Amino acid sequence: MANQRFAVMVGVDDAGSLLRFAERDAEAMRDQFEAEGFETCLFTGLNATAGEIKATLRQAVMRSGKSDVLVVYFAGRTVTPEWSRGADTYLITHDLDESALSENPDSGVRMAFLERDVLEFFAGAAVLFVDAVGDAPEGSRPAYSALTSYAEDAATREDPVIRHGVLTAHILATLHRQPSVTFGSLAQAVREQGLTPQVMSPPEGDAVVLAGPADQPGRPASRPLANPMDAAAGEILHLISRLTHHARMPRHAAPRSAGSRAEAGGAAPSRVEYLRAATDAHSSALLEYTANGFQTIDSSKRFDLDVIRPLLRFPAGADWFGHTVHDDHRTVLCVPLRLAEGRSLLLALVDPVADLLGLGQPLAKILETIWRTDFAASPDEAEIEVLTALRDAFGRLPVPLYEHCFELYRRVVKSYCVVFQPVVTLGKTARRVGVHSYEALARRSPSDQRAPVAMLRLAEVWGDRFVVERDKVILRMALHAYAQAHAEGPWAQPKPVSVNVAVRSLLSDAYVETLRTTIAELAIDPETVTLEISEQDPIEPRRGEQWAEAPHAYFHNRLAAIARDVGVAFAVDDFGEGYASLSRMAELPLTQIKVDRAILHHPLAAKELSLVMDTARYAGHAPRVVIVEGVDNESPLTLREIYEQRIRHVQGYITRQPAAPTLSTISPETSEYIAALVRGDDEHRDTLITRADDLPLQRGA
């Protein structure tokens, strides 16, 4: 039969790379192409197996004729095995065993198979769509058309508002909106929305009809795509500067929210007026859309919903990423804030300054992010969130925006202060209870007991340069604060101090040099300094790096060299989370093991603590001090039970004093209180700490 049209859709969510909507993307693409008359086959979740996918594709090739069309779509993660030396990329299916590929390369769906055995061998016209996180295959000049996006430098390319991959959402919206769509016109429409996928097609491939009658091919218009932010970097920086300026004005400033972000719809009443002023719009409003249509939740002066209501519509697909509507009198920029079943929120800006509208989709992402940030409370942190959102949505930032974000991040981290939380030595008598050491913790202010966890971890999103700079800044601040606090404190001999550090920083010569010079400058005994390595950090080479030894052996030798050169010690932090393993604890030259509070809530907590103690005791390195973190009033284990596991050190608010910039001893009353808990005198109570005047326990970070 002539003029057959086939579509094979594959979607695989991936928790490791935080892909949540890949399967939803494949289902939506299946529905769209099915509506266009394609014969479709969908593979998602457990059904997305390499064997079934390849068998289906081979059947499509065997049935194909010269007038047929094949569309292959993949959403998920891709990987290039190290043994292939970059020459072979695989689509990650549910059943893929990456460790087995070196022995059986054909056990997965290889791009080489997809290209040579399917797309190039198909008798008719073939089109490939890939919306993926991972490695891009090596470039080629294919005999098929391809619109692909491989986000190598981003955690995901999904948007939680539209609940689709960004590229896929625009593909769906174009197919839905336009009566006739060719591959060339689709690529052009995606380019106009500000995305930068790779576009490849033979000369005749642009005319392949994807939507509408096959005898109305439309105008092919495919050309190389460029990141729209490259040309708009200056305008984006100017807009962010305006937003920061207006946020600092008293009439727009809002108090800092209880969390790191304000919930959409729960912002201060001045938020809509703030955005109106920053965009020089005629008026603005927060609108709610339900089955009954649009209603105003909050608005600036002069906003009239009845006037613009005829322009408003509930947009489909990628239009929820932001769109503009207009008539002869006014223009309305619509930005989604939250999309939910039965109730959605939309920000409407009436007649914003015309220059801003030229920014396109980046403008919508900027405004959506601004709505859930707190520019007035911390303009620098809010700017970083905006730039991070742009990077997540569009894959990369132009150099001026990247450098601006780096300087902002350095400035934010430098604005933090350092407080010290004591590690307490346990004993059955008050005189045996005391301070063992301190951990230096970063805080926004001395009185703020909440760690700026989200901002500190943001460095990992941006890469090693941010991570190393963050750790260098915090190291310098921590050691300077420690030296001053000890000079003013009660201790004749310095108490040890620990500082958190990432694996990638310890692999950086720049970080080690900062460590060495700071210790020398302050005349600190290096043996009193311990660097805590989080268990949440993988010990593995970056893609493209070559380590001469197995990862743990390589990292062990790196730590040993630093210890010999500088004289500091090392600890493992957060043991029991992330990449936790007894092999890491046993193989690295550690002097401390800090057990995460999560272990205390495990049903076999006592046995796990005993195993940790045995490993620490019999490892081939120096004896390790085991410290249990976060001992609190919710812990199933009492302090007596912890002590009975041979553990003599804990950390947390058990001293009933918050972390502070100064160092102090434990009061006699607190020492007796802790000793009583160790003896079990108070175990008729349900919790370790129950009095109303006791401070709630929080995990330091």
From TrEMBL:
CDD domains: EAL
All residue ranges annotated as the EAL domain in the record: 398-672
InterPro entries the UniProt entry points to: Caspase-like_dom_sf, Cyclic-di-GMP_PDE-like, EAL_dom, EAL_sf, Pept_C14_caspase
Protein name according to UniProt: EAL domain-containing protein
Native species: Paractinoplanes hotanensis
